[in-house]
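Teaching assistant here, posting this on the class forum so everyone can see the example we discussed in section. The complex has four components, and the goal was to see what a joint structure prediction looks like when all of them are supplied at once.
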Amino acid sequence: MINKQVTSISDAVADVFDGATVMVGGFGEAGSPIELIHALIDQGATNLTVVNNNTGSGEVGLAGLIKAGRVSRMICSYPRTTNSTVFPELYRSGATKLELVPQGTLAERIRAGGAGIPAFYTATSVGTPLGDGKELRQFENRDYVLETGLTADFALIKGARGDRYGNVTYNKTARNFAPIMAMAAKTTIVQVGSFVAAGDLDPEAIITPGIFVDRVVHVADPAHESALVAKGVTYP
Amino acid sequence: MINKQVTSISDAVADVFDGATVMVGGFGEAGSPIELIHALIDQGATNLTVVNNNTGSGEVGLAGLIKAGRVSRMICSYPRTTNSTVFPELYRSGATKLELVPQGTLAERIRAGGAGIPAFYTATSVGTPLGDGKELRQFENRDYVLETGLTADFALIKGARGDRYGNVTYNKTARNFAPIMAMAAKTTIVQVGSFVAAGDLDPEAIITPGIFVDRVVHVADPAHESALVAKGVTYP
Amino acid sequence: MTTPADTVGLTRDEMAQRVAIDIPDGSYVNLGIGIPELVTQHVPEGRELVYHTENGLIGMGPSPEPGQGDPELINAGKRQVTALPGAAYFHHADSFAMIRGGHIDVCVLGALQVAANGDLANWSTGAPDAIPAVGGAMDLVAGVKTIYVITQHCTKHGDPKLVEACSYPLTGVGVIDRVYTDLAVIDITREGFQLIELSPGVSFDYVQDRTGTKLLPMQGARGA
Amino acid sequence: MTTPADTVGLTRDEMAQRVAIDIPDGSYVNLGIGIPELVTQHVPEGRELVYHTENGLIGMGPSPEPGQGDPELINAGKRQVTALPGAAYFHHADSFAMIRGGHIDVCVLGALQVAANGDLANWSTGAPDAIPAVGGAMDLVAGVKTIYVITQHCTKHGDPKLVEACSYPLTGVGVIDRVYTDLAVIDITREGFQLIELSPGVSFDYVQDRTGTKLLPMQGARGA
């Protein structure tokens, strides 16, 4: 019987290796898999390339991972944060590199990576510093840049409900990058607030089919980043 | 107040013009918008380019449109049908042209057209007759062909439930090409089995958000192609 | 200290109201952070606009009542919002398919600089120590059908934001359709900045003096 | 009329059973029309496979009870099927993202011809009056990790289907991993067709005689 449930969150991230590329779901705090990130901090993997729209806030979750010196490179669209000086300091010191990607290009590159599309053309960034050095091509008299698909070794994702097949639903705008990251990673690890029986999820409303998911961990009552930051929590 | 509901199915397709490109949802009979196609037959537009995975069966729905001589060109992946000689005859006579596209490339071209991606690379068809003459390019030592996005003037689609904003859900495998065709057409016309109040559809489970839909027509108890064919119905 | 800019021209809300007048009923709209967000409060009676936020929601409603919010229901500015009846959630690739694919009718953005050819700079001052951050701005200007800029006519230092050519890094090339400032409404045309409307009590010369390049007077009217 | 091909070698069900043995527990599987579909009936006890059908369903179950079907719940062969608990529906672009993106573990297809380098021809005989139709075959062979062919060793006319080079139009280049026929199991290797297993009562020479090019004998065994 297929059962992708992993009962221990530390087991779920045990094989993340030094130098891995890790996609982390979430846009701001919505959809940020805090507990999985904290398990990854405990696990100790370093020299990671992390793909996330932002760089976390405060000193918990993704910002905690960055502060712990585990991230050598960020791929994101908006690394500025109101509540965190963690990334700016490491960026300015050169300890953490940054690949800045327009948000829609980032999303499409991840989706392409998951869909077996090695490259595609987009008008986004044409004529801007982020389009500099990219291959230009005209289609119907408009300029486009060539962008490549993005894949990862691991994806860490926060879902709302999940089952033993790895089917996942999300809560509101916590969905954001999670479904496409689940497609683009070799190993996709999802924390879900509720673990339900196979068949409990409406097959018309499953957002991430289990084929894209490798491990499901039940994390009841996951923390919210803003609440941790407001309480002054730091991790580790 | 936004209200995309059109009460008359003939009004819904009134502006389809001669020479238009029309995407028609459905894979076999699942999701085939029979009533909208019949309204289009009645409306009379001709010299159409039709995008559908197949070419219909019997002499109703899409096969009826083709038999009526309205389709000068089909873009599809599998034009052979067990229950219809309509397309084969017109194809052999040269009256209807065929652009044969692998099914996944067809789907991705439609999705690209709707997503503002003018072109992408895929390994599908490399080294085959359907890849002949296409631009080849290597990424990481593998060959890919360049494929372009596909758009349309109109999409005719069958949904299960819809609301005044044009939000749509589908029934089972009737979903198939509909969500991407809705994205790729300038004017998307959806027949729905149930017309519901705004807010009745779960925002987590809306498959086609209304932004992709222009008109919604309520067609209660839509016909199934196989039932019509079994009864020997022809249209017109 | 009182300068003319403090005493003439539109308030932020009046600017937003002026933009709202130009957005047709039924439009799908994406609003940038800041003054653009005020547009929702000034939609004329009888019009319904649908708001898209690029982090995965269409049918976005106002901020929640205190204590009623969900930290996982936020907008692109990462502030808590609500979802109206008829709203839908979707993932980021689908969200930017709406943007890139030309499905959003109007985007209203802030600006650092707008050039006479429609170039926009609004993501970076190019300062060497700044953390570069672009978000969805480049996708929005490349994909949305109509791009409006809403901005003070000049910077806090009195420098013109409407210029012959942007000195800051570009967000997009030739993408802006119209600029709404405290002083005027100005279209981007083939010939450059075309004055469309002056704010009450503001003269052509007053606006021209605060514009970094030639401003074409209103058609059928004489400059100054 | 009785030929040796009628009396030796596996039945269609035995061929499907032989394939099923090689598909690991928990695999995501796409089955072509015909003999491949029989695989579902021969999965060894204790294994669970998940079936994908490219028209938008994963977790596909068997045919419905008579009168219980839904004409909108069909498989790629357009026959009515069921959805098992844990199934999910999705649209065509997502479905082929599963295929093209390498998420399906095993695809079992029929063949007109398989070449010694792994080329497959299974969509067209190239007959000039035929209506060309490809469906999802080219996407499947380009995207799925492991491609198995299940086929009679020879055509109805007794011609070999395993050939040096395909004469029919190709579905994909170098895509086949293994071929299961009524007579043998044969891998595609850098050196060509490598015999892995003979069906009961079938000799190496018997298979070689019915194969259009050189067949490498089983390793550790002597040819014939």
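For the discussion questions: Chain A has one domain: 9-115+150-230. The first strand of chain A starts at residue 21 and ends at 24. Think about how each of these relates to the inputs above.
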